[in-house]
Specification:
By secondary structure, this protein is an alpha+beta fold. The chain contains 19 helices and 44 strands. The protein binds alpha-L-fucopyranose.
């Protein structure tokens, strides 16, 4: 890649056309330590992730290594799925969806990992008579039981029972109000994972297995007592989140109320439950795919201070990727600095104080993995070894504490430092994962080698190397929407007030945070960002914290090209190469087709077979959607070597797959995809708008690429013919863009997925230029769908409204995305996107969406300020990249373009459009052009 002297040039031009630059607002900061994981601040080097809590007496740094997952290399494909393909298709063409789904469920899903029978275990744990004391009985003595705070939306794993699956008893009680005597009561217990046997005063009042909704049991008056009443619940949890998980709306309590009375009269159940683990060895549950795992935690315990700490602040500086905690305790100012170094592959923490001999603490390591061990390995070092349950992967991590002054002693699995002047702490971590087929790595050797390399390096060496490496990416783009008075407020308060306050600087910060997160989770040479990037503290994270390809994985990479982080895209490209190997097997076994196919999920073992359920797991365009990222990388970079050696060979494989796979719809005569679904609704069908848009895009890209590379003339003819015979986009009877080939859309459907609008964004199948009627129909579909959604759905809608060129509606969606996460999609205290729970896609989709308001380039020209919201009156963004090989600095005042510079990185002709004006000029590679507000070329 050619490097341009961007800093030097922009320095010269800054004075000429851009005037005064306000400082960017680039810090997240808080006046109190993190209480929950989603309050903690994320750091990462693409491989190692850290979440810093910043507690005064107890510092907690939870960390991850990106290759620690459950599972092992194994066969994921059903051997003879292809035998049933035709029958499934015929059933669907004949309108027999249910039969097709049943057949597919039996013969067309992937293979699960090992599964054990449940019945014997269930009989054992249900045999309460065999227990010394019957925990269901009202009179049991539970004084020695421990307590836990429930409900917890992410399961009891997050509130003390980490890693626990099995049979657990929970107990609670309440005093029956006298006025309720003689009335039947409703026990509203929320959702319970997975199976409950609920007793009131020793009598079974309800049991439900695997419900997706909350439990509401009606208990007859005769079973209740005057005064104190006892609830005992035996919860059987086989895997994933356990216990009382409550409601999505986490503010909704568990409660009891008389039947027929309003919830307003309800009595809230105490959140403190007594618990006792009866059996923590449930039968194994087979899993279609593996889950991303936490690694461990660094715990630093400081002596209690005489007085309460004051002047507390913790922050994350996006310009340096360094987090800092400061406070004053007993008259001493303490500062902690943390970063995760890419050049040195370690977490670095520095503790300082403004008075000598003030630093004393104990450092320890721990892990939620049942199989883990901490050892003292030297006078100032510890190691942590972890082994994933029932899986092939293990990890090793080393913690080293280097104090200046004072005394350091390592014993009993801890390192104690007393009265030091300054302390450096390093952590290295590795696993035995080498690639998706090979787990022969030596984690202890890697962790040790990384630690040994630090021997001759000072803190300032490490810090400098870190800054240099990080800033080469981060500093390529700056953005300013004007200063907000709210910049003086801590970030949690800004999020709370954002919808009311028009805190423009927070929107700019959100964009830069997206870039920060992408650099931190997806450096070249690492694995791509999963559903949570590289940050995960749970053994059973939602959706396995893996890779969902029907929107989430792709959304993670929406900012990569436009927001000038092209190299961060590389891990995704490497993954596509691996998927082309595993997906070739799936293409053969399920479709008897060449090329490769990826269904709606994948994991570290690169599984590509259909998973979960036949009504939504059989979706065939995952690989094709991913391949559009290869083509987009070429569009932005104009890198022909990349096109020739990496992108086109993979794209071509996908075209070969679809050449073989597409079939003629007997009703319409057009080619359709299928069996498939429109993610994740409507069930198994033949033909969806999304598939056809993606496949059309793939063919268009392959046709163009084969022309540029002057290859595959014969194949090109086939691709052209298939493209032209594909089912076109259709407008349905409600004026909507049809989601399916038949006009069955339901205008009251508020589903989070808006897949049929793929051609509007991220595709370019439907644009105002090409087909305004279709664009209107797409907009109508989005209006029917409504604004509400999960975090990623809100983020997608920012992009849609930007492409519809309705900046104010896009801005409304930004407001919804940057709002407190308590009741649904929004942002957590650390600005992580809430599905809920935390899912990083919305951060990336949101950042890309804000940029989409300012510049679009998918129609062959630079479309300037295409969806500028009226709230964003003044601003500038420098370093945006556009397709065709351009880098753009744009400034606007009073809602109008005021300055523009374009750097040509490929020497292509440049066309710019702005409010009816148009300018086209030839460019020279490496040259920077200034254009005035009237769209005239200045030099
Ligand atoms: C898809 C979405 C869900 C979630 C999951 C990870 O299944 O429908 O909303 O984002 O992926």
């Amino acid at each position: 890649m050619i490097k341009y002297p961007r800093l030097a040039l922009s320095f010269v031009f800054a004075g000429l056309s851009f005037g005064n630059l306000q400082a960017q607002d680039l810090k997240l900061w808080y006046n109190q330590p993190a209480q929950q994981w989603t309050d903690a601040l994320p750091l990462g080097n693409g491989r190692i992730g850290a979440m810093v809590f910043g507690g005064v007496n107890q510092e907690h740094i939870q960390f991850n290594e990106e290759t620690l997952w459950t599972g092992s290399p194994r066969e994921y494909n059903m051997p003879d799925g292809a035998k049933y393909l035709n029958e499934i298709r015929q059933l669907l063409f004949a309108g027999k969806q249910r039969q097709a789904e049943e057949l597919a469920a039996r013969h067309f899903m992937g293979l699960k990992s090992k599964e054990e029978e449940r019945a014997p275990w269930l009989a054992k744990v249900r045999d309460l008579k065999k227990l010394k004391e019957d925990p269901s009985s009202a009179s049991i003595n539970d004084r020695n039981w421990k307590t836990i705070q429930l409900p917890a939306i992410n399961g009891w794993e997050t509130v003390g029972l980490e890693g626990v699956d099995g049979a657990v008893w929970l107990r609670n009680s309440f005093v029956l109000p006298d006025s309720w005597i003689g009335k039947d009561l409703v026990f509203d217990l929320g959702k319970i994972r997975d199976h409950d046997f609920t007793y009131v005063n020793g009598q079974l009042v309800g049991t439900t297995d695997n419900a997706s909704d909350g439990r509401r049991y009606v208990v007859a008056a005769g079973k209740l007592r005057k005064g104190l009443n006892h609830i005992s619940i035996q919860v059987l949890n086989y895997f994933d989140k356990g216990g009382l998980v409550g409601y999505k709306d986490v503010t909704r309590p568990l409660m009891v109320y008389p039947q027929g009375a309003s919830e307003a009269q309800a009595l809230k159940l105490s959140k403190t439950w007594k618990y006792k683990i009866q059996d923590d060895n449930p039968p194994l549950v087979g899993a279609y795919q593996a889950s991303y795992q936490p690694f461990g935690d660094i715990m630093l315990t400081f002596p209690a201070s005489r007085s309460k700490a004051s002047a507390y602040k913790r922050e994350l500086d996006l310009s340096t990727a360094i987090s800092r905690t400061t406070y004053v305790s007993d008259g001493v100012r303490y500062t902690r600095e943390y970063f995760v170094s890419q050049p040195d592959q370690v977490i670095v923490v520095r503790l300082t104080a403004d008075k000598k001999k003030s630093i004393s603490f104990q450092a320890g390591l721990r892990s939620s993995h049942k199989q883990s061990a901490v050892r003292v390995t030297g006078p100032n070092s510890l190691s942590l070894a972890v082994q994933v349950k029932d899986g092939a992967l293990k990890g090793e991590s080393i913690l080293k504490v280097q104090a200046t002054g004072g005394k350091t002693i390592a014993k009993d699995g801890q390192i104690a430092v007393s009265k030091a002047d300054e302390v450096l702490i390093y952590l290295s971590a590795a696993t035995n994962y080498k690639d998706y087929k090979d787990v022969s790595g030596n984690p202890a050797a890697i962790a040790k080698a990384d630690m040994d390399k630090l021997a001759k390096r000072s803190y300032s060496d490490l810090r400098e190397a870190h800054l240099k490496e990080y800033q080469q990416y981060f500093n390529r783009l700056s953005v300013n929407f004007g200063s907000s008075p709210q910049s003086a407020l801590p970030t949690d308060q800004r999020i709370e007030q954002f919808a009311r306050d028009n805190d423009l600087a927070l929107a700019a910060l959100y964009l830069q945070y997206g870039r920060y997160l992408l650099i931190s989770t997806s450096r070249p040479g690492t694995r791509p960002a999963n559903l949570q990037g590289i940050w995960n503290d749970l053994l059973t994270p939602s959706w396995g914290s893996k890779y969902t390809t029907n929107i989430n994985l792709e959304m993670n990479y929406w900012p990569a090209e436009g927001l000038n982080l092209s190299e961060m895209h590389e891990p995704l490209f490497d993954m596509i190469s691996e998927l082309s190997e595993t997906g070739a097997e799936t293409a053969k076994k399920y479709y008897n087709a060449p090329g490769f196919v990826v269904h709606h999920n994948t994991d570290i073992w690169r599984g590509t077979a259909p998973i979960n359920n036949s009504n939504h797991g059989i979706w065939v365009t995952g690989g094709a959607w991913l391949s559009t990222h290869l083509w987009e990388h070429y569009n932005f970079s104009q890198d022909k070597e990349f096109l020739k050696n990496k992108a086109y060979p993979l794209m071509r494989q996908l075209a070969l797959f679809f050449n073989s796979y597409l079939v003629k719809d007997p009703q319409t005569g057009f080619l359709v995809s299928g069996p498939t679904n429109s993610p994740e609704q409507g069930g198994l069908v033949m033909g969806t708008a999304m598939d056809h848009q993606i496949i059309r895009d793939l063919y268009n890209a392959c046709i163009r690429a084969s022309e540029i590379l002057n290859t595959d003339a014969e194949l090109r003819k086939v691709m052209k013919s298939n493209r032209d015979r594909l089912t076109p986009n259709k407008i349905g009877r409600y004026g909507q863009l049809q989601e399916w080939t038949v006009d069955i859309d339901d205008t009251t459907n508020k589903h989070r997925h808006v897949s049929h609008l793929w051609g509007v964004h991220p595709g370019a199948d439907i644009t105002w230029d090409k087909d305004p009627e279709m664009m209107k129909a797409a907009r109508q579909s989005l209006i029917y769908r409504g604004d509400e959604g999960t975090g990623w759905s809100l983020a997608w809608k920012i992009n849609f409204w930007s492409r519809f060129k309705d900046g104010n509606h896009a801005w409304k969606m930004v407001h919804m995305l940057i709002s407190p996460a308590a009741k649904g999609g929004g942002s957590y205290v650390n600005l992580f996107d809430a599905h809920p729970p935390f899912q990083i896609d919305g951060n990336f989709g949101g950042a890309a969406g804000i940029a989409e308001m300012l510049l679009q380039s998918h129609s062959g020209y630079l479309d300037l300020l295409p969806a500028l919201p009226s709230a964003l009156r003044d601003g500038e963004i420098k370093g945006l990249r556009a397709r065709g090989g351009f880098e753009v600095d744009v400034k606007w005042q009073n809602g109008k373009l005021s300055a523009l510079e374009v750097l040509s990185t490929a020497g292509n002709s440049c066309t710019i459009k702005y409010q009816g004006r148009e300018l086209t000029f030839p460019t020279v590679r490496g040259k920077r052009y200034t254009i005035n507000a009237a769209l005239q070329l200045m030099k």
